[in-house]
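Our example pasted here:


***
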Amino acid sequence: MTDQNQPKVLEIHEKTTVNKSSISNEFLTPNEIVSRLDKYIIGQQEAKKAVAIALRNRLRRQNVSEDLRDEIMPNNIIMIGPTGVGKTEIARRLAKLANAPFVKVEASKFTEVGYVGRDVESMIRDLTDQAVNMVRNEKSEEVKEKAADLAEERLLDILLPTVPASPYERDEDEVEHSGDGDKAEADLEETINRKSREKMLERLRSGKMEDRQIEMELSSDSQGGMMQIFGPLGQMEELGGIMQDLMSGLPKKRKKRRVTIAEARKLLEQEEVQKLIDMDAVVKEAVRKVEESGIVFIDEIDKIAAPTTGGGGKGPDVSREGVQRDLLPIVEGSNVATKHGMVRTDHVLFIASGAFHVAKPSDLIPELQGRFPIRVELKSLTEEDFYKILTQPKNALIKQYKALLQTEGVKLEFTDEAIRELAAIAAQVNESVENIGARRLHTIMTNLLEELMFAIPEKFSDEEIEVDKAMVEKKLSAIIRDRDLSQYIL
């Protein structure tokens, strides 16, 4: 009896999590998350495993009782590895998979309080702005169909005269003194106008009137658009939000424009979408998304770590440690003032990354190290990795170039030997010049196809072009041999 009821209980429990969770695909297991990341990123299984567990733990947290839910903090991650091995791409793809607000910042751009530069709280403000845009776009899609219908009605009002008021819409005294003839005439006018609108609506939907020009009034949103408020840290955001609310309460200017019906439809749809969306609900949902599922990717965190090789904590090392101490309360969990209200960072997931060629993770202040308990090392890319990067991912570079030239009617094909030669060249140049990871493939592909891309479509059109190993060697061998030249080109 208990065994039979157990699946039913589990099913109900899963359904309740759907409403609580802000993750778009609630039933992704860690294995499924890794397999989806594999479609875009080659290798780096340890890093994928770590972020998959972190994402799944967020869903698990939603199922925990409320008295314990707030106590469960995210396990922030530090990715250690050279540039171009997939650190940023893993974080970005993870955010897309979770439909979570995501922002990438560079730690080296921040300065401690009192120095010139951006303060660390700005990353949360940027994340909140990103979340508001996400939710607004989601709500816009929901009301898009209704907005299109309302825009059509407004177009009909512009194209056809306004329907006169029928006797039923007049004052009671006026209706009493009007005769049957007036009522019949008004009904006839209303019928004629209704049929005219129906015919005009058919013509609008048929697309025959798209190029016709009309004159219409549109609201101008330029008021206060260039206003900036300067002040200390969070006060600037609070004052900016207050001023924005005040300005939104003022009547908007209307200006006449002459546009085609196709343009008018888009403009009117945008206006109707804005009217249908409840921005207070959008902001509330966006703040919830940030607090429950926001992801902040802090790149170059090794640049604010002072190497323990001497220096006595003077000069730039003081500023580096200051940035770490300013960063600490944001990562630990605090309230940040934004123009959309206060945002808590307790459950925001922070993923940091750095090459750590000079400094080491242990050079960060101990308090900050403790807030990034998960550390994963990403490996340098090998020749075989480069071959897989060129061929396997959904957004593989070769697929991108094929799609670009297909728009010109040119079919581009690569032999397997050519692809393997490109991978070998990428690995060789990275080893001998500077290891920039997968980004080396962009420079190599650009140099390989530069003349071809320039000659299309004048010299090549509706043709099939094959790139073989001989062509790769001819185009790139000279640059590879000249090491000094390769530093500038490849």
Summary: The longest strand covers residues 213-220.
